[in-house]
Amino acid sequence: MKVHGKPMRSIWVEPDGWSVGIIDQTRLPHAFVTLRLTTLDEAAHAIRSMQVRGAPLIGAVAAYGVCLALRGDASDVALERACTHLQATRPTAVNLRWALDEMRQALRPLSPSERLTAAYLRAAALSDEDVAINRAIGEHGLGLIESVWARKGRQGRVNVLTHCNAGWLATVDWGTALAPLYLAHDKGIPLHVWVDETRPRNQGAGLTAWELGQHGVPHTVIADNVGGHLMQHGEVDLCIVGTDRTTARGDVANKIGTYLKALAAKDNGVPFYVALPSPTIDWTLEDGVRDIPIEQRDGRELTDISGRLPSGEVVTVRVTPEGSPVANYGFDVTPARLVTALVTERGVCEASTEGLLSLFPERRPVRGTGT
């Protein structure tokens, strides 16, 4: 995608050939700042503090975090220590675990002297794979938007509601939920995106709106509780969101508030789609409400808010009374019954066990083995 007209990804290896560049997403939309990661601890901090966020991008940063760790010590102990340290940074997004497992599998059979070069090659391959996966998600999701446009007689515009940020800032490039929107816009379909602010961190207002603006996609930022009203009045043709973890039966964990959007969509007959790369599927879980761990984050994300003054200065202010306790749940789970369809790199399927297995038949248990 582009920033001020310049193509770029959300993570890259710096010209020195070993340090890792990222966009500090905590500074957006008021300032575009890039950071250089040079150590395991810096990579872990970037994930934990949400300088990088979004399940696919977290996985890519974790992979490169392993590379940085092995620069000083490529032993078995160091490899495992790095993976364990990175795994602990964010509990909900399954891509983090997946990427670290991929790095372990690639590096464990090698001698310590071979690991560093192999680690950078594998991390780069994982990043390239993410770009290809997200582009394919975009192609499959584009068909859903084209169908709506055709049903409307190619008149007016297609109104899409999204929640949080599932664009290229949340991945290595393209995004998941936003990839179909970029392709539709580039194809000339008149598109308008309702962007939920997504409290408490405002990833919609601060990140999704910023990247849609960079790409020239028409959009409007709305308060989180406006979506149901818009659906009641026919102002939403479809909803599409991302997911940080999807169970084997199609339950999805996404940013807090997603469940309420799905309920409103169901009540108003609005299709509710979830875009996901296959590494986001946790095949070990069935019941998302019961089994997906929900991250509880620092209460200051809820009590404090940052913004830019007319002078240009960015400040943080408190919006709740001193002493009032807060609970800051980062995610909620939308049951499969509320999801119209899942959009993956292999196609669109029903949000169910059979739906997912129809696209990923290699995951179907082998008869007689119990596996």
Automatic annotation (TrEMBL):
Substrate binds at R53, G54, A55, R90, Q203, N254, K255. Coiled coil: none annotated. Keywords: Amino-acid biosynthesis, Isomerase, Methionine biosynthesis. The record marks C164 as: Transition state stabilizer. It comes from the Bacteria. Pathway: Amino-acid biosynthesis; L-methionine biosynthesis via salvage pathway; L-methionine from S-methyl-5-thio-alpha-D-ribose 1-phosphate: step 1/6. One of its GO terms (molecular function) is S-methyl-5-thioribose-1-phosphate isomerase activity. Gene3D superfamilies: translation initiation factor eif-2b, domain 1 (1.20.120.420), Translation initiation factor eif-2b, domain 2 (3.40.50.10470). SUPFAM superfamilies: NagB/RpiA/CoA transferase-like. The active site is at D244 (proton donor). Its EC number is 5.3.1.23. InterPro entries: IF-2B-related, IF-M1Pi, IF_2B-like_C, Initiation_fac_2B_a/b/d, M1Pi_N, NagB/RpiA_transferase-like. It catalyses: 5-(methylsulfanyl)-alpha-D-ribose 1-phosphate = 5-(methylsulfanyl)-D-ribulose 1-phosphate. Belongs to the EIF-2B alpha/beta/delta subunits family. MtnA subfamily. Catalyzes the interconversion of methylthioribose-1-phosphate (MTR-1-P) into methylthioribulose-1-phosphate (MTRu-1-P). This is Methylthioribose-1-phosphate isomerase. It comes from Archangium minus.
